[in-house]
Amino acid sequence: MTSKRPSLTAEQLALSEARKAKKAKQNVAAPTTASLVNDVKGRIIDRKWIQIKDADSIPSGHRVKILTWNLLAQCLVRRELFPNSDCLKAVQREHMLYREMLQHNADILCLQEVDRLEKLLPVLESAGYAHRYAAGPNKKHGCLIAFKKDLYEEMGLKLVLYDKENVRDTDEEGVSLCGSTFRTRNIGHIVALKHTQCDEGLVIATTHLFWHPKYVYEKARQAAILKREVVRFKQSIGHDDWPCIISGDFNFTPDDPVYSLIVGDPVLPVQEEKLRPSYVVHTTIDPVVATGASGTTDGNNENEEEGADPDKVITNARAARPVDGLLSLSELKNLFLSSGPPLKSAYDSSLRGYLESFSESNKPTRTFGDRVSIPSSRLGGYEPEWTSYTFYWKLVLDYIFILDAPQSQSTITGVLSGHRTEDLQPGLPQLGVCGSDHVLLSAEIVFTPTLT
After folding, report:
1. Segment 29-57 mean pLDDT
2. What kind and span of H or E run contains 36?
3. Fewer CB atoms < 10 Å away: N or C end of the chain?
4. Quick one: which of 422, 418, 419, 426 has its CA closest to 391?
């Protein structure tokens, strides 16, 4: 029996096939994490989780697991910076990065030196994360905050351009309100997140402060601005009752004056001596400053953000003058204090008491204080032993800081252990070890209301 349906024209057949192809494409499942992350290429050294407090011993509250990591932007990779690395190509590093950032199953990721978004975002999306990305003016890399879509929804965000922020309120004639020493193009990235199952929320901030080791004042200025803007932001969205987590690559060590300022420790005379030479004004602020000889390095080049020489001197700058508006040490202290109590370090505050019960040979992780002498009365000694380890620099630069909300307190129930020094040698990044020159940090934090 012949069909009574009229024959389709060539154009109608082509249209029908196109519709079928489109429908088939729509029915194809989105790429899975397993298909995007190669476990063989992603082989790394796994680290143990340190359970500091039993979860059952903590009153019920808002529990969050967060990680922070500087990924080492591919646009910044140069062989002369990492002469002993065996994996400087993106294709060699990327699966190690993906596997490590996902295997900890963190609720929130704070990432710095993020580029190649076209590769990273599908991996995050396949793992159930939403994200917010931001970068400084004309920068090829930036900061990214990712969060599990089933746990959090975004309630607001803010970009902090340190170069444009003032640190002085009073307008004295001829005096700069910005009080900056260097136009660095660094940023702070802030996102407000509300829990999908309740009314609790968090303000999350991440940053990558200016890298130059000699510009101590500028890093103190940027850190103080970030703390201030985080507090202003949560007030502006009507959630002063939300706690804050501020994490990232701060580019200062635990014995640095900026660390003392941010955690509320007194600034020691030796730290003041480190701060004093950084009261300068670079040619990026004052173009009248005569530039140095050809070939000098001052950190204003995109590719010099993690310079090869840790003993760099300040060049292309002049001594600061009163009209430049730089803050004195006492004014810096006031700027930090004006935005609330000092920040608390997740690692230093939790490992301080926990590790005291272990003998030296049985410690589950080593700390900064194990290799640098810090009095027990001062903070910082229980930060990780290393957070960046390369041929040229071996330092602690990355932190997870907490600012508790009024009528609430935070308890750190666990942190990720550090790498053993022998595993990091001769320097990161290394195949089978870590895909970045920085070490990933992670902590689980419980926020509980305090009794009133």
Report:
1. 88
2. helix 33-36
3. N
4. 426
CA distance linking residue 163 with residue 183, whole number of Å: 6
Phi, psi (rounded to 5 degrees) for 295? 95, -5
Q: How many angstroms separate the CA atoms of 141 and 135, rounded?
A: 6
Q: What is the pLDDT of residues 228-271, one digit of tens each?
A: 999 999 999 999 999 999 999 999 999 999 999 999 999 999 99
Cα–Cα dist 364/377, whole Å? 23
* Structure token pair of residue 308: 């090869």
CA 212 to chain centre: 17
The DSSP bridge partners found for residue 256 are: none
Neighbours of 130 (CB within 10 A): 17
At 154, the amino acid letter reads: E
Q: For tokens 């950084």, what's the residue?
A: 278
Cα–Cα distance measured from residue 182 to residue 300, given in angstroms and rounded to the nearest whole number? 9
Q: Which of 54-68, 209-223, 416-430 has the lowest mean pLDDT?
A: 54-68
- Structure tokens belonging to residue 169: 């309120």
Angle at which helix 216-236 crosses helix 329-337, to 10 degrees, equals 20
Give the three-state DSSP class for 135.
Answer: coil
Q: Where would I find the beta strands (DSSP E) of 333-397?
A: 344-345, 388-389, 394-395
Residues paired with residue 145 on neighbouring β-strands, in sequence order: 110, 132
Tens of pLDDT, residues 67-117: 999 999 999 999 999 999 999 999 999 999 999 999 999 999 999 999 999
- Gyration radius of the chain's alpha carbons: 24
DSSP notation for 282-326: ETTT-TTSPP-STT---S-SGGGTT-S-TTPPP-SEEE--GGG-P
Residue 358, burial from CB neighbour count under 10 angstroms (0-12, 13-18, 19+): exposed
Sheet holding 408-416, edge to edge: 49-51, 408-416, 441-449, 62-70, 108-114, 142-148, 129-134
Tell me the two tokens of residue 239: 């959630």
**pTM for this entry:** 0.91
Q: DSSP alpha helices (H): ranges in 181-243?
A: 216-236
Judging by beta carbons within 10 Å of its beta carbon (0-12, 13-18, 19+), is residue 374 exposed, middle or buried?
middle
| Euclidean distance between CA atoms 438 and 189, whole angstroms | 19
Closest CA to 434 of 380, 386, 370: 386
